[in-house]
Amino acid sequence: YAGPGQADEVIISLPKGGYSPQFERRTPEAPPADRPNEPILEPQTTPPPQRSKRKLILAVGCGLAAVALAVSLVMRPWDGAPPSIAVLPLVNLSADPANEYFSEGLTDEITDELSHFKSIRVIARSSAFQYKGKNPDIRAVGKELNVATVLEGSVERYGDRVKIVAHLERVSDRSSIWSNTYERQASNVYTVQSELAAAIASNLKARAIPSPGRHIVRDGEAYDAYLHGTYGLEELTAESLEGAERDFRRAIARDPEYAAAYTGLGTAIFNKANARGTAFRTPEETRDSLAAWHKAVDLDSTQSTAHANIALYLMQYQWDWKGADREAQAALASGPSPYGETTAAYLAIYRHRFAEADEHLRRALDIDPFQVRYNVALCRNLEGRYAEARESYEMIRARQPKGLVPVIMIGLSYIFEGHPELAMPGILELEKRYPPARFHEAMALARMGRRDEALQLIHQLEQHANDPGTVMHSFGLVYALLGDDDTAIQWLARAADAHEFQALNIAIHPVFARLQNHPRMLALKKRMGLD
Fold first, then answer.
1. pTM
2. Is the Cα dihedral 296, 367, 229, 225 positive or negative?
3. Torsions phi, psi of 524, nearest 5?
4. DSSP letters of 45-77?
């Protein structure tokens, strides 16, 4: 509008940071006082004079450029939001299927490396790995994960060589943004993840967050042992965790400053109880896992998972809420972390800070839209928002039709809400696959007013109270629903003595609302720091 368009009656503008055009009619201005003889430019109402061919081409070119600018603005994934990416599982093209650990581990490492770049929203592994082996349409991936770009690729090991092919693609039109092939000796493959992440970040116009404490691994055997260990963590069996522990110790022996290996070592030791089917850990397991996590953050303060694990440990085993808060904040300061956000959410919700918990869960879902739904649904149950909890669990069940957790929690939400008759058919079916569902049957019977049947069943279950895997907290729920407050609190105290994670919810669980001012409950909450 400074040249040929200075007489245009209508001005079309694109506001800064937006792409919706704005239209306004030009208002004639009075001539400046120091230039009285300058004519007023009236709006032009007749067609402009015929331009030369060269001028017409120039005008058309400028118009196309304006259209291209508007289109580029419209095509941005979200207005004002950072670039976003999902790293899909790299396909293992090696002749030996045993190399699956390598392709999965490298995918994790690339994802982690990208998370250290500023202004990139990186989808968590747990959501991206649902597409493993499915060859999905990347447009569907982009819609489901709310990302603008996807990284796909493959890994092939042959002899002492590794070939990695990577493709960065735009979701909107499935066009290629960047691609490259890396070939390395297996002993030097640890350099690829940094190179690849830097190339992706460059193409997405992002910059790295300075991380002076981060340790760069330069030992191929240590790196390979670490990748093998992380693969073992995923299987969550007694054998795989023992193997993972050996792998992490081997990585540490090769590189004593390998902070991530210490994080994995602590997790392998801590999760042995889960593999045994029990909630109870030996003093050696709790001591050694905590020591490994502390070593990890001492070596590298950006070890978000280690910070979050320490926070959960302090919460569950020491009831040190201030210390847990400090570690949770350290986890969040290390960079975007759905695990750190959900840890902070639990800390908030156990102390009645529901709005704060919701904000943490919202941020966690932004990074991990699928796996985090488990935590979201559990928190909704604890808040008494049962319909929302069921909605989340139904979404999970649609994706994992054979999963037990959604079925278990949907039934419990109906019981807690006061509709045990809707839960009972599913509970009776669930008991065939999951014997602890007998506790849920006792809860449903109590809620339905069938007191004698509920008592008969809970007395049978009490005979196995000391069996591995039996959760004392479940007895507290049954007796609270039966209206036997003293016995309920007695079982909750036993759950606290055993440091069950479930015992942390005694101050907020809706089933225990009636017990909150009971003298023994007040004393128990004070002992746990929940008063």
1. 0.80
2. negative
3. -65, -45
4. -SPPPPPPHHHHHHHHHHHHHHHHHHHHHHHSS
Q: Is 428 left (phi over 0), alpha (psi -120 to 50) or beta?
A: alpha
Per the CB < 8 A criterion, the answer to whether 336 and 121 are in contact is yes
Distance CA 241, CA 178 (A): 38
Q: Coil, helix or strand for 256?
A: coil
DSSP 3-state assignment of 170?
Answer: strand
Compute the C-alpha angle 410/411/414, nearest 5°: 90
Q: What residue type is 396 in one-letter code?
A: I
Q: Could you count the other beta carbons within 10 Å of the beta carbon of residue 99? A: 16
Q: How many CB atoms lie within 10 A of CB 302?
A: 21
In the chain, the largest separation of any two C-alpha atoms, in whole Å, equals 105
Mean pLDDT, 10 residues at a time, the chain of 531 residues: 62 62 55 34 33 36 38 40 89 86 90 84 91 88 93 89 93 91 85 86 77 72 93 90 96 96 97 86 94 96 95 96 96 90 95 93 92 90 92 89 88 95 93 92 96 97 90 96 97 96 95 96 97 87
Per-residue tokens: 359? 């904000």
Name the token pair of 345: 């959410």
Q: Return the structure tokens found at 515.
A: 């017990």
CA gap 267, 365 in Å, rounded: 23
As given in the structure block, the two tokens for residue 312 are 């959960």
Q: How far apart are CA 418 and CA 493, in angstroms?
A: 25
Asked whether the beta carbons of 197 and 114 are under 8 A apart, the reply is: yes
- Residue 464 contacts by C-beta under 8 Å, 6 or more apart in sequence? 470
With CA atoms as reference, report the closest residue to 447 among 488, 477, 471: 477
Residue among 432, 438, 518 nearest 470 (CA): 438
User: Could you tell me which of 152, 86, 92 has the C-alpha nearest to residue 120?
Assistant: 86
- Which of 314, 320, 263, 319 is closest to 292 using CA atoms? 263
